[in-house]
Amino acid sequence: MHDDPSMPETALRLFIGLQPDDDVQVAIRSHQPLWRWPPRARLLKAEHFHMTLHFWERVHSARLDELQHVLGTVPMQPIPIVLRTTALWTKVAVLLADENVALNDLRSRLMVPLLRMGLRVDGHWTPHVTLARHALGAVPPACSPPIHWTARHFSLVRSTLSPTPPFVQHDVLRRYPVSDDIPRSPIATICD
C-alpha cells in the first residue's frame, strides 16, 4: 500500500505522531513570540503541535482498520524529549529534539508492521515540532530555555487540508498509550 495519486477520493492523509500534553503545548506556544516573524508567517496553534514519526499523503481508507490494529502491536514506553535547538527549513520554523535513542527506537519499531502492510516509510527523519509555516525570513531567538517533554502515547492522526483558515484540521483516530506491561524506571529530567 503506497501513496498513490490514483486512489479514490476516500484516500486519507495520515500521520503517526507524538502529541505534547497541555503543559508542553503552553511551553511551545510561549516559545513562538521569541522569534521575529515575517508578515506572512502562519504560526501553528497549540493543539496542532506534534512530532511526526511517519506520514502518508494518501492511504486507502479501506486499510484504516488494519493500520489501527497493527499499530496496537507496537509497545510504547515513556520517552523523555528535550526541545532545545531552533531551525528554519526553507519556509518552516521548527524546534529540534536533542538526540534521543528511545525516540529513534520507537520510530524503527513502528516501521516493522508498516513495511509488512506495504506502506512507504521514509528513512530520513529529523525529530522536530513545527512552529510556523511560510516563515521565510523569520529570525529565531538568540537563546531560549529548553522544553522538557515526556511522551506517554503515540497517535494515528488524520490531517485534512483546507484553503481557508484554520488551513489544517487534525483528528486523532486512535491513541496508543504507554503499555502497562513494560517495567518503568524513574526518568530523570535533564537540566541545564
Task: Output the radius of gyration.
Answer: 17 Å
Shape summary: globular
Q: What string, H for helix and E for strand, traces the elements in order?
A: EHEEHEEHEEEE
Quickly give the structural class.
alpha+beta
Q: Total number of β-strand segments?
A: 9
Distance between the termini: 45 Å
CATH architecture tag:
Alpha-Beta Complex
How many distinct folded domains?
1
Oligomer: single chain
- Provide the β-strand percentage band: 25-35%
Helix content: 10-25%
- CATH H-level name... which superfamily? Cyclic phosphodiesterase
Mean pLDDT: 88
- Unreliable sequence segments: 181-192
Helices, by number, come to 3
In CATH terms, what is the fold-level topology?
Cyclic Phosphodiesterase, Chain: A
Name of the CATH first level: Alpha Beta
How would you sum up the major sheet? 5 strands, antiparallel
**Strand neighbour order, sheet with most strands:** 2-6-5-4-7
